[in-house]
Amino acid sequence: MHFTKSFVAAVAFALASNFVVEASPIPSKAVEAYAPMGERKFTAEEIDHHEGLFKRAFPGVNNWNCKPSAARPRAVILVHGLIGSEDTNWAYMSPRFLAEGYCVYALTYGQLPGIPLIAGLDKIETSAGQLSTFIDKVLASTNTTKVDLVGHSQGSLMPRYYLKNLGGASKVNKFAAFGTIAYGTTLLGIAPFLTGLGLYDPIKKIVDPICKSCFQFLAGSPFLTELNNGGDTVPGVSYHFIQSQYDEVVTPYTSGRLRDNNPLVKNIKLQDLCALDLSEHAFQMLDPIVFHSVNAFLSPSEDQTINCLDALR
């Protein structure tokens, strides 16, 4: 999940616009040409053009000729959050992982027809199937048996479905994530507020066609209940889950913690690494302290002492 306050406002406006008809001085021809995002049609050329711009900005990611080294024996797969993509979510971290010598891969999952460039919108189960296919491709390309995962927001949640239900436990060694959503979010209390007003189901009916995953990661959803039933981790995989006390999307932030009594699980409060770190949900993607914490987890040979000084390197 990759929300900002402006995105929440945009969603609220979009919902309101379903009920409001207003006069407009825009010429009728321009009005007739407009289509809601979920109904817009983009040509293959337009999509290829935008994807080409992103790929030129991030050379080295998804290099199918890359072979892991003795120092970096597993490929790292980056898993974006809601409304992110393989490019937009990792502008800061992907070059840094490449500079550390990893074979770095990233996928864009959960896209819906007619909505290019943003993703994570489809059902989480469907997205997990896409991750499964992508991981198999990476394993075959690198001639390895396991990968490491790094996820943000929904990228902390969707892979857990893959690990538990799609055979991923045998193919993943380490799973690091930040802005985590282990037990969902109340969205600052908005979800229970809507339930109290009897608006939860009507609004879900409006949102589902353009974001099938959105209501899946709300606290208490049937998806989360099933996913966490019997334990929230799988044997053999090491977990490194980072939460920020200033997270305004995952609320309360403690719902991002895994609860299994598993020696391979480590929950980290970002402010325990550096009390001065004010990163909320989205800014964790740009946080050097988060990056160095993840890098130390993936590579035990790295300095394991992470503190405020890591913001300077």
TrEMBL record:
Per the UniProt entry, the signal peptide is 1-23
Give one Pfam family, short name only. Answer: Lipase_2
Spell out the molecular function terms from Gene Ontology.
lipase activity
Keywords, ordered alphabetically: Signal
GO BP, one annotated term: lipid catabolic process
> What is the protein name given in its UniProt record?
Triacylglycerol lipase
Question: Which source organism does the UniProt entry give?
Answer: Podila minutissima
Taxonomy, top ranks, is: Eukaryota, Fungi, Fungi incertae sedis, Mucoromycota, Mortierellomycotina
